[in-house]
Amino acid sequence: xxYPDIAISTGITGELEAQYICxxxxxITLKRYSxxxxxxxxxxxxxxxxxxxxxxxxxxxNFWRVINFCASDSLSHSFPKEATxxxxxLLSKYKKNTYQKECLKIAEDWKKIENKFFNDIxxxxxxxxxxxxxxxxxxxxxxxxxxWGRLILPx
Length: 155
What we know:
By secondary structure, the protein is mainly alpha-helical. Helices cover 52% and strands 10% of the residues. Helix 1 packs across helix 4.
């Protein structure tokens, strides 16, 4: 049985963080969060399952224009480079992730148990049909508290 390819990203380049922030921004412009009774907050709120963390960065009017007119509203498609480039530039002004080693260790540890995990899932839950339809799973390790700390404590 062929299992899905698992790609674990730790935001080394900042591209996936930028794509994720653009995704949240697009959903804000589409009013999906307010329509779903979610709160969009500038800080993580781990105690509230209906809270969405959107970093309080000084986004330009052009960023919002690009996001508003962007056809993509999914993480499966890339957002315009004009928007993601601005987010990467804004994030680069803050302290780098001090947990990079830990994130890389998670990726290494996953590789060690990946086959056993899928074998166990298949054995106990009989997911062969469902798993065969999934080509790839992207896992983005985004340490929200670390990101929040970077936004509060610039170098």
